[in-house]
Design a protein that fits this description.
Layout lengths: L11 H11 L27 E2 L10 E7 L5 E8 L4 E10 L2 E2 L3 E2 L10 E6 L5 E6 L15 E8 L2 E2 L14 E7 L5 E6 L7 E5 L1 E2 L2 E2 L3 E2 L10 E6 L5 E6 L10 E6 L10 E2 L14 E3 L5 E6 L4 H4 L7 H8 L8 E6 L2 H5 L5
């Protein structure tokens, strides 16, 4: 998780109203639509990014992170409320061919501690997320630093969360897990006493994770990179970083390719279609079938730009509660552009 920015403060009354819908405290204004087919029944995108399921996933709230089960029948994402005082993991499921209305995931309902960045292993057996909840199994009684937590699949649900401990988690901060087909975990770590975020990986050997290794300078090319998605076959990594000459905004998405000799290419900016000058981007994800790139971006839609002259407070609230209002939303785009960026030898 990157540094939180004050520009994402959400008005209190709107937060309370929206939160009531999510938690079932009041009815929604309209019936949830009938959605069937893959990806919430949405029309697949082309080469230009578009909002994913606008009005259903992006709603005007601060929305970030994205994950799916391998069969594509469960979709998870996150929302943040009140300047990150409250964070929630949302879920929608395809049951008997019809998608359910997004609701707060059962493991996210306590709202006492931070919970973000859902990630599901390629085999669908493990669910990872970031939390600062106390590790009661280790004797903790109060919220601590950010750790990666895990849940195991148990039938049609997820089991109780647990902290995997070292060598994944330390007394510093660890977050944004991403896992390859062979179980290797990539994640961000902040070493206590040091500045900046760095990307690490830990190999899974005989069912146990090995000591995490700092990734090379091609991946950790600046003082601060974080929130990386690793390809299932480990052939590339998509990460977020800034401070580079070709960075558009506060932080951009970059891709670094890896070959069979464990050599990494130089980082490549994903370009103007993905990255913008409007803000920072830091939640990359590739769908299990490899077809689509999902990402968080804080873009201002044309419906905002074209409707500000002579606007009333009622109209302002309507725009505020709509996707593309300037808060982060989830976008998707055809992922075939990734191969076009691949340099020779990778």
């Amino acid at each position: 998780m990157n540094k939180l920015k004050n520009e994402y403060i959400i008005a209190g009354l709107i937060v309370i109203s929206t939160l009531g819908v999510f938690l079932g405290l009041r009815p929604a204004d309209s019936d949830f639509p009938v959605l069937t087919g893959p990806y919430l029944g949405q029309t697949p995108p082309g080469n230009e990014p578009v909002l994913f399921a606008p009005g259903i996933i992006p709603t005007g709230l601060y929305t970030r992170d994205f994950a799916m089960t391998p069969d594509g029948n469960e979709i998870y994402y996150c929302i943040a409320l009140a300047n990150f005082d409250y964070t929630l993991v949302m879920v929608s499921k395809n049951i008997n061919g019809r998608w359910t209305e997004p609701e707060v995931a059962p493991f996210s309902r306590e709202m006492k501690h931070m919970i973000l960045e859902p990630a599901i292993s390629p085999d669908g057996r493990k669910f990872y997320f970031l939390s600062n909840r106390p590790d009661t199994a280790a004797g903790e009684t109060e919220a601590g630093d950010q750790d990666i937590w895990v849940m195991d699949r148990q039938g049609d649900r997820w089991g109780e969360p647990y902290n995997p401990g070292p060598p994944i988690n330390t007394d510093g901060a660890e977050f944004f897990a991403s896992v390859t087909d062979d179980g290797t975990m990539y994640f961000t770590r902040v070493v206590r006493g040091q500045r900046g975020n760095k990307l690490y990986r830990s190999r899974l050997v005989n069912g146990e994770y090995t000591e995490a290794e700092l990734l090379p300078e091609q991946v950790n090319s600046t003082a601060n990179q974080f929130n990386a998605y690793i390809a299932r076959d480990e052939s590339y990594i998509i990460l977020s970083t800034g401070l580079r000459e070709d960075t558009r905004g506060g932080a951009d998405y970059y891709i670094v390719f890896r070959n069979a000799n464990d050599e990494w290419s130089d980082p490549i900016n994903l370009g103007d279609k993905i990255n913008t000058e409007q803000g920072s981007e830091w939640s990359p994800y590739i769908s299990p079938d490899g077809k689509y790139f999902f990402f968080m971006a804080p873009r201002v839609g044309e419906h905002i730009k074209d409707n500000m002259s002579g606007i009333t407070i009622t109209e302002m609230l309507k725009l505020y509660n709509s996707p593309g209002s300037g808060y982060p939303d989830i976008y998707w785009v055809d992922a075939s552009f990734i191969d076009d960026l691949r340099p020779d030898g990778y």
